[in-house]
Write a structure and sequence with these properties.
single chain, mainly alpha, MetI-like fold, 14 helices, 2 domains
């Protein structure tokens, strides 16, 4: 008997399906990576190489230069201020999101909570129906948050979707842990922060990364609630540069009329690279928590 006799031979349909999947996924990968490659390559390309090949989609640089990035931070603190504000927003906003999410999800994970199902229905209702743009703007205005840093934090302090994931995660934790702590005299707050949260780090890390990416990339709240340009986050500044097709938004002063200044296309790609670097650096450190945290959070409904 051949040692391969126990291996099932794939049918023609299975092989055709596998080949089709490989071809399709290869195509999707190429379509996804090519624009990223073009942006990254252009940001390191000398301006003269771009001028020599104005109609080329991809320009292979004769040498790699960092002058384009130096120009971004020359003559003004606008880009640096936007960078610092976005970092602060991401850190504080993610902290607020996690705190509100945990404090909302933990009580809702308790089966003896009065009106538990009714409260969950109210939260789920907000996922399907929202007040809309104008009512949201009016609420933020009445709270006197317009043109303030907190206008980008408080309106999005809780994601019901992530709260439900967190609640399911808490529901999967054995109740004996909390019961034994109660018998030792621990309060609910002590149990939450000293027992429940330490065993919930995978889910918290995964949700924190989602919140952080959202804060880093979000600009619509700045469009709606912020008119003071000094409070613009980095993505809002990038949006204005791309929409207006001008780097004048960087307020480079006298440097902007310098004939040796890199062109708009090069500088715009450099801004995109600069804005994406922090999240690209953080993502690999927390990626391992994604599958574990989110799957554990989906065990119970």
């Amino acid at each position: 008997m051949s040692k391969y006799s126990g291996v099932r031979r794939l049918s023609f349909g299975d092989r055709a399906f596998g080949v089709s999947n490989v071809i399709f996924l290869t195509f999707v990968t190429i379509v996804t990576l090519v624009p990223i490659f073009i942006v990254l390559l252009t940001s390191f390309t000398p301006n003269l190489d771009i001028l020599r090949n104005p109609t080329s989609v991809v320009v292979i640089p004769g040498r790699i230069t960092f002058d384009n990035f130096a120009w971004l931070f020359r003559g003004s603190r606008r880009l640096i201020d936007g960078y610092i504000l976005t970092i602060i927003r991401t850190i504080i906003g993610t902290g607020v999101n996690i705190l509100i999410t945990v404090l909302t999800a933990y009580p809702l994970s308790k089966k003896n909570l009065p009106f538990r199902k009714f409260l969950m229905m109210l939260f789920v209702f907000t996922m399907i129906f929202s007040g809309g743009l104008i009512p949201t703007f009016m609420v933020v205005r009445e709270m006197r948050l317009l043109n303030t840093f907190w206008a980008m934090i408080i309106p999005g302090a809780l994601s019901v979707y992530f709260m439900i994931i967190m609640r399911n995660f808490f529901s999967a934790i054995p109740e004996e842990l909390a019961e034994s702590a109660h018998m030792d005299g621990a309060s609910d707050i002590t149990i939450l922060f000293k027992i429940i949260l330490p065993v919930s780090l995978p889910a918290i890390a995964a949700i924190s990364l989602f919140y952080a990416v959202w804060h880093w990339n979000e600009f619509m709240d700045a469009v709606i609630f912020i008119t003071d340009r000094h409070l613009w986050p980095l993505q809002m500044l990038l949006r204005e540069i791309l929409v207006s097709s001008s780097v004048a938004e960087l307020a480079l002063g006298g440097a902007i009329i310098d004939p040796n200044r890199p062109g708009f296309f090069v500088l715009a790609n450099a801004v995109i690279v600069v804005s994406a670097i922090p999240i690209i650096c953080v993502y690999p450190w927390l990626q391992k928590y994604f599958v574990k945290g989110l799957l554990l959070g989906s065990v119970k409904g």
